Amino acid sequence: MRRMYRGGLIVAVGVLALCPAIRAQQEQNPGGEAEHADTAKEVKAEDKEAKAEEKTSWLPGGLSGNVAVYTDYSFRGVSQTGKNMALQGGFDYNHPTGLYAGYWASSTNFGNTYMENDFYGGYAGAVDNFSYKLSTTFFYYPRDEQFNYWEFGAFSGYDFGVTSVSAGFIGSPDYFGTLGTGFYIPVGFAIPGPTVSCPFPNGEKCFDLSWDANGGYTHTEQAIFDDHHYFDWNAGMVVTFPFHMKLDFRYVGTDVKHFSDADDRFIFGAKYLF
To answer: pTM to 2 decimals?
Structure first.
């Protein structure tokens, strides 16, 4: 079944690569990573790029994709792969009005399922340096549909230039399919770093650095990890290359006790945007 998933992902990547509307846009971040609003600068750049693509493509808006490999898939601090490697990928559609929709998938290793599928959409906008986003996500787990569920989120952020901050609220009528009503409150900040030059010809813009730290609070109607709530956090450095590659070095943790998949740990990932 995992081979089928990888084949499907390769087909999706191939279809996207043939579409003239594709550019390396700022990707949406589902699967536990969507807990913040893009900065006002990112939102405006996405709208501008979508408008530019609309003039040269049959598609009204912009289409982009991403593929990634991570040493672990952490969802709100908890490993979904038993601390093993995860293959991930998806694609996003952005309309100049601010509407967006997409699909994202990751390999998993819990229960009877082998894969997480996220179908999502919403609206994102910006006013000056203030950004906001509304989102809806459906999580689908093949072979273990008891975990299927919906989430609805509202997020805001502000870009101060030297740093950007964000906060949000995510609610679900049936969290993770088995835990009753639940909600998640994420907060975070990001610091843009310098552009680093490399000692070779045309190496003036070798890569960009940025740092971020995030925290969250999960509360569920049914007990989770012997309680009804827990905190998670992560902090990391992202290296962005001009050829649409990102490297993510991250430390992840929770306050959950006696559950190894929620232990503090380092995670590394490589993502390619197209």
So the answer is: 0.85
